[in-house]
Write a structure and sequence with these properties.
three-stranded antiparallel β-sheet, C8orf32 fold, 2 domains, alpha+beta, Immunoglobulin-like, 10 strands, 4 helices
């Protein structure tokens, strides 16, 4: 299996038009340990803000609640550290988390299949009950074939059904289609977001979305 050791520095800069008297924000900016990801070190630095508390949410994501210093006109959040990843071909092992797997079978407005998604599902070859992993690989390939990757033509409110109907979308649309189709076949699935490393640059601006 191929491995990568990544040095990451993430900066979020908030600028306000007038002094802030009171503000709280939840930050999910700490990578999670998984079967294919190990956090070697990670730190968060705050300018004009302070940590109120930290906890793990229902998905085991580490959450930091910060408070803005009274009178601040800007806030800087900087996270940096080293993360080791391992390519496990999409297999991450047993589920870990507070929520049971059946909770990831519920459709949302963005994933709920309509006529176009159901028609796409009927094209996937192979019985899902006998070989679910093969079924999901076939589904993933069909989505990429039928829904071209085109930026700027969909947004965060675009549903999976709409993306299939249009025939284009981006990673979040592919994820919504895949999740909705998997759930429709009794396979728990959820949406994940993170960084996308582009090989042609050092400063990275792209984020990525995928399904588990």
């Amino acid at each position: 299996m191929s491995r990568m050791r990544l040095a990451i520095r993430h900066t979020t800069h908030y600028s306000f038009g007038s002094p802030v008297m009171h503000a709280l924000q939840r930050l999910r900016l700490t990578p999670k340990e998984t079967q294919g990801q190990r956090i070697v070190e990670w730190q968060m630095h705050l300018d004009n803000a302070h940590t109120e508390l930290a906890y793990d949410d229902q998905h085991f994501n580490h959450v930091t609640l910060i408070g803005v210093e009274p009178g601040a006109r800007e806030v800087m959040v900087t996270c940096e550290g080293i993360v080791e990843t391992e390519d496990n071909a999409g297999v991450i092992g047993r589920h870990s988390g507070h929520l049971p797997l059946w909770s990831f079978l519920r459709q949302t407005p963005l994933t709920r299949p309509g006529p176009k998604m159901r028609a796409l599902l009927r094209e996937v070859q192979g019985p899902v009950e006998e070989a679910p992993l093969d079924f999901l690989h076939a589904l993933s390939g069909l989505i990429r074939e039928r829904v071209a990757y085109e930026t700027g033509r969909t947004d965060s409110g675009t549903t999976g059904e709409e993306a299939v109907s249009h025939g284009f979308g981006v990673c979040q649309d592919h994820a919504h289609i895949f999740i909705g189709a998997a759930r429709a076949n009794g396979i728990p699935a959820r949406y994940v977001s993170g960084y996308l490393m582009m090989d042609d640059r050092i400063d990275q601006e792209a984020t990525h979305a995928w399904a588990e």
